[in-house]
Structures are given as C-alpha cells and as structure tokens.
Write a structure and sequence with these properties.
- By secondary structure, the protein is mostly helical.
- The chain has helices spanning 7-31, 35-39, 46-57, 60-78, 82-96, 103-109.
- It comes from Sphingopyxis jiangsuensis.
- This is Tetratricopeptide repeat protein.
C-alpha cells in the first residue's frame, strides 16, 4: 500500500507555496523606489521644487490653482509619468507668473 496524498491533502501545501510567492513578489514591488527617484529626473526634482515655490508666492487668487497643478504633477511623478508631470509644473509656473529656470531647456537638449 502506497502512502499517496489525496488532492485535498495536497491543496494546503500548494496554497502555501503560492501565497509565499505572492508575498515575496509584493514585498519586492513595495521595496523598489519610483523610477523618477532612481533617475534623478529634473522634471520631478528641480522643476517640481521651482513650481512649488512659485505657487507659494503667487497671489491669493492664483495660489490655489497653481498648488493644484503642483499636486497633480507630484502624483504623476509618483506614477512615473515625468513628461505629463512637467506639463503640470509648467502650468503652475505660468499661473504664478514665473519663468522656468534655464536648466530645463539645457537638460531637454541632451
């Protein structure tokens, strides 16, 4: 008489293996940093900082709108969409009446 496991007895061990793999994969994803943080992209670092400063110094009527653009831009950076984020930051700068620093045009030329 051989001692084979029935399919019901094999299920818990198979489930444990799948669950452990899923937990390991989830931990791997959670431990990685967003792409913009790894690359040091100007659009999500320097331009974001410049837009946030400009939003703070904008007039009362323009401040909330500029801050909304900055907030949206930061969320886009977190999602890894630097190009769309830069558009949001530039819109915030335009609303605040501030010219973008020349560093971005030099970075874009590369």
């Amino acid at each position: 008489m051989t001692n084979q496991l029935s399919s019901f007895q094999r299920f818990p061990s198979a489930f444990a293996i799948v669950a452990a793999s899923a937990l390991a994969f989830t931990g791997l994803i959670a431990s990685t940093t967003p792409a913009y943080a790894q690359s040091g992209d100007y659009r999500c670092a320097g331009l974001a900082e410049q837009a946030a400063s400009a939003a703070e110094t904008a007039s009362a009527g323009q401040r909330s709108s500029a801050k909304r653009f900055v907030s949206t831009g930061k969320k886009l950076c977190e999602a890894g969409n630097e190009r769309a984020a830069a558009k949001q930051f530039r819109a915030a700068l335009k609303i605040a009446g501030v010219d973008e620093a020349k560093g971005d045009s030099q970075m874009a030329a590369r």
